Amino acid sequence: MTAFSHDGMRDSLTNLAAPPLFYEELRREIAKKSRSGEGLQVLRIQLNEIQVSQGVPKDNSPINFEKNSDFNSATMPDFEHDREILKFAQILSSSTRGDDVCARMGQKEFLVLFSGGALDIKIFITRIVTQWSKRKRNHILVSSSLLACSKESPLDFLNRLDLERLTEHSL
User: Which residues of 18-30 are buried (b: 16+ CB within 10 A; e: fewer)?
Assistant: First the structure.
């Protein structure tokens, strides 16, 4: 379960924006985009757990990995999950600009709101994946991104983002 600060504006573990703050910023930026014509992009990133299958392959083939979007509490203690989430949040925060809004929307789901001019999401996600992959991690990154349409409601925009196919990123 995700816990928020006493005012509900920040995630208590990562200090990233909580959903209410993100929704408000998204609403403002969509309204601003409608007036100014500036670009607005949102990047959705999820951490998916990698689980090593039981046993060693008999033929010395590479170990099989299963991707599981749910945490498996039997294989990893809660503090390890929190450490992974916190490390990813730090990478995300240090990779964004001051005007961008990073939010933790769920246990392992993050949204980044990029306002203003065009941003090459591929370059940004490559930078995040490179930093994430420097050390052995228990999670891989999957993401999708979307450009906001003028005069689109925040709810319609987020519904469209939810329908976008997630792409796996690995190095």
Answer: bbebbbebbeebb
DSSP string, 114-158: EESS---HHHHHHHHHHHHTTS--SEEEEEEEEEPPTT--HHHHH
Q: Measured at the alpha carbon of residue 25, what is the angle toward residues 29 and 23, in degrees to the nearest 5?
A: 115
Of all residues in the chain, the percent with pLDDT exceeding 70 is: 77
Tens of pLDDT, residues 31-90: 888 787 777 899 999 998 876 554 443 444 443 444 444 444 444 557 777 888 999 999
Q: Where are the beta strands (DSSP E) in 53-84?
A: 65-68
What whole-number distance in Å separates Cα of residue 65 and Cα of residue 92? 25
pTM score over 0.85: no
Pick the CATH number of 19-53+64-169 from 3.40.50.10750, 3.30.390.50, 3.30.70.270, 3.40.50.12780: 3.30.70.270
Judge whether residue 137 has pLDDT over 70: yes
**CB-based burial label for 62 (10 Å; 0-12, 13-18, 19+):** exposed
- pLDDT value of residue 7: 63
